[in-house]
């Protein structure tokens, strides 16, 4: 996953080292402690550790999933009471969703795996998902057909198909989105101005997605067919290194973390990242775990692939500027090369192909792509806003974000 690129910020002052009295340092681990997990990712790729709660919903959820799932339990009270506009970035709601979704991935440490399909938890999660989608619809521009659909079908329903030629509208919409300029530009900041501490923080944030990279989008494979399925598999096969473990993008990122002396254990940094970071992965899980959102999942992946090469080239330059190793830079370099090829496949064979075979999903494709752009935008705003104030973008040791 990458941040959609946009123009450089025009701040003439150089980046200052992070100064935050009383804040915990970035959780580095000794270099000597890292190579074992890089050589044997299974040792560092187990269930995610349980975090501290961030509000009433995540607190009640964490209490519930520590119990025996076979016992009678009522989770219908686990409703989030915030405003819809706050749902995409609320720490409490995003953590609850991330924990519920993680049961479908590596699992949660000490949590009975039967919770994955517990009907009460699924019932509660569906309400949180509806609230998240309602917030996204407020934040993400929609086509007129989509707006009419959402008002008649409810916040949790996919969009209706677009009027006119759906294939042309998907191609034009995705192309315009990939070429759009806006502020701020996280990739240029990391390339030119970021300190080592700030670049390391960026990697800590991204670890929540990149250590499971490709997995959330792979939910689409059994939901597609024919040439569209083939396009998806072509992209995903590269993400998984063509079956070579050391070439998998998640493993390349693990080596990158090791080069920066950052703990490579799956889910290790969950406590340190805010809801705006969890949103990025939660979006893909939301779209991937529901067949009705397959169009949005395809659009989300297409947006990623079409906006990846240039930012990753800049990340690579920032990595090297700050003394990062050449072998570790392979993670960024691989995305520059692979995603330049994936861009055309994602646009014409995957996204346009789906709009051609299932025209009613064209609106969903654009909605998913716009959600990806929105998530990248609020993530960049958070990091650059905190850094401009001389603060850490990570949550402090007490779990409080100012």
Structure description:
Residues 144-161 have a biased composition (Low complexity). InterPro entries: Haem_Oase-like_multi-hlx. This protein is mainly α and 402 residues long. It is 54% helix and 0% strand. It contains 16 helices and no strands. The model is unreliable at 1-37, 144-153 and 398-402 (pLDDT under 50).
Describe what is shown at a glance.
By secondary structure, this protein is mostly helical.
Which features does this protein show?
disordered C terminus; Heme Oxygenase, Chain A; mainly alpha; 402 residues; globular; disordered N terminus
Class per helix and strand makeup: mainly alpha
* Global morphology: globular
* CATH C-level class of the domain at 31-46 and 161-388: Mainly Alpha
What percentage of residues falls in helices of 4 or more residues? 40-55%
Q: Main beta sheet: strand number and arrangement?
A: none
The CA-CA distance between the termini, in Å, is 26 Å
* Number of β-strand runs: 0
Name the poorly predicted regions: 1-37, 144-153, 398-402
Give me the Rg, rounded.
20 Å
CATH homologous superfamily heading of the domain at 31-46 and 161-388? Heme oxygenase-like
How would you spell out the order of helices and strands?
Answer: HHHHHHHHHHHHHHHH
* Tally of helical segments: 16
* Strand content bin: under 5%
- What would the CATH topology of the domain at 31-46 and 161-388 be? Heme Oxygenase, Chain A
CATH architecture of the domain at 31-46 and 161-388: Up-down Bundle
Oligomer: single chain
| Average pLDDT over all residues | 86
């Amino acid at each position: 996953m990458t941040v959609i690129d946009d123009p450089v910020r025009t701040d003439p002052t150089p980046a200052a080292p992070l100064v935050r009295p009383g804040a915990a340092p970035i959780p580095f681990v000794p270099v000597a402690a890292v190579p074992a997990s890089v050589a044997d990712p299974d040792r560092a790729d187990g269930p995610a550790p349980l975090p501290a709660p961030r509000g009433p919903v995540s607190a009640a959820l964490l209490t519930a999933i520590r119990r025996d799932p076979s016992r009678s339990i009522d989770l219908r009270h686990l409703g989030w009471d915030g405003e819809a506009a706050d749902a995409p970035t609320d720490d409490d709601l995003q953590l609850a969703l991330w924990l519920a979704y993680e049961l479908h991935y590596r699992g949660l440490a000490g949590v009975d795996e039967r919770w994955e399909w517990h009907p009460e938890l699924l019932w509660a999660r569906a309400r949180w998902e509806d609230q998240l989608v309602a917030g996204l619809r407020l934040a993400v521009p929609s086509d007129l057909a989509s707006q009419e659909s959402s008002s008649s079908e409810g916040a949790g329903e996919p969009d209706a198909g677009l009027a006119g030629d759906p294939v042309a509208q998907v191609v034009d919409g995705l192309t315009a989105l990939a070429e759009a300029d806006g502020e701020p530009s996280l990739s240029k900041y990391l390339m030119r101005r970021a300190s080592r501490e700030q670049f390391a923080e960026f990697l800590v944030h991204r670890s929540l997605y990149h250590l499971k990279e490709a997995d959330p989008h792979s939910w689409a494979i059994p939901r597609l067919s024919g040439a569209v399925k083939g396009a998806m598999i072509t992209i995903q096969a590269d993400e998984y290194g063509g079956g070579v473990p050391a070439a998998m993008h998640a493993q390349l990122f693990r080596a990158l973390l090791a080069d920066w002396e950052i703990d490579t254990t799956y889910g290790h940094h969950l406590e340190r990242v805010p809801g705006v970071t969890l949103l990025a992965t939660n979006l893909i899980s939301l779209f991937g775990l529901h067949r009705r959102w397959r169009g949005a999942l395809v659009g989300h992946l297409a947006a990623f692939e079409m906006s990846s090469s240039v930012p990753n080239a800049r990340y690579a330059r920032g990595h090297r500027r700050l003394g990062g190793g050449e072998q570790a830079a392979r993670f960024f370099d691989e995305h520059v090369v692979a995603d330049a090829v994936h861009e055309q496949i994602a646009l014409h064979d995957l996204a346009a192909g789906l709009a051609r075979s299932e025209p009613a999903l064209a609106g969903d494709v654009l909605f998913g792509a716009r959600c990806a752009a929105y998530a990248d935008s609020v993530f960049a705003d958070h990091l650059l806003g905190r850094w401009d104030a001389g603060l850490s973008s990570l949550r402090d040791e007490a779990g409080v974000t100012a």
